[in-house]
């Protein structure tokens, strides 16, 4: 039975100067392995969503974030747990060099082409909002 209390997970929606979005593929040996997601991770006890995001992105991609803007949370119930995604939007002026430590692949993809990838169900509403142009990113 899924966990009743949602697990809070911060994630990054990072756009490049051409409005391509950063996608990260989960390793095959992990839960939801082989699916694409917006990178991020669980909040530690007492940690704010933004602090967790910055920590996770530093750990997962070796990237220091500039300005981020919170987006509407997304809740999704999986068989194994309920996830409450806390997305943040940011824009980079130049594509950064990424050093993924937790994902087996990362790529920049246009928002229109992103639907070719198989995304985790919790990330799909965020991707759909991007496609609708329902969000804008701060410059960093």
Kindly list the characteristics that best describe this protein.
alpha+beta; 140 residues; single chain; 3-stranded antiparallel beta sheet
How would you explain this protein's 3D organization?
The termini are far apart. The longest helix is centred in the middle third of the chain and has 13 residues, at 49-61. This protein has 2 helices and 8 strands. It has helices spanning 49-61, 124-131, and strands at 7-15, 20-25, 36-37, 40-42, 69-70, 74-77, 82-91, 105-110. The strands form 2 sheets. Strands 1, 4, 5, 6 and 7 form a 5-stranded mixed sheet that branches. The protein has 140 residues and is an alpha+beta fold.
Brief digest:
The protein is α+β, with helices and mostly antiparallel strands and 140 residues long. It has helices at 49-61, 124-131; strands spanning 7-15, 20-25, 36-37, 40-42, 69-70, 74-77, 82-91, 105-110.
Mean residue pLDDT: 91
Which structural class fits the helix and strand makeup?
alpha+beta
- Considering DSSP H and I runs of 4 or more, what fraction of the residues is helical? 10-25%
How is the main sheet built? Answer: 5 strands, mixed
Number of strand segments: 8
Terminal CA distance = 42 Å
């Amino acid at each position: 039975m899924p966990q009743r209390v949602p697990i809070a997970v911060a994630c990054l929606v990072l756009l490049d100067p051409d409005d391509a979005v950063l996608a990260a593929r989960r390793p095959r040996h992990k839960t939801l392995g082989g699916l694409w997601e917006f990178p991020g991770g669980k909040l530690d006890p007492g940690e704010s969503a933004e602090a967790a995001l910055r920590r996770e992105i530093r750990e997962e991609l070796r990237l220091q974030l500039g300005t981020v803007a919170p987006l509407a949370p997304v809740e999704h119930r999986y068989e194994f747990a309920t996830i409450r995604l806390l997305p943040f939007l940011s824009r980079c002026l130049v594509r950064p060099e990424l050093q993924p430590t937790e994902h087996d692949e990362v790529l920049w993809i246009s928002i229109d082409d992103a639907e070719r990838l198989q995304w985790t169900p919790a990330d799909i509403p965020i991707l759909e909002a991007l496609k609708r142009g329902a969000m804008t990113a701060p410059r960093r």
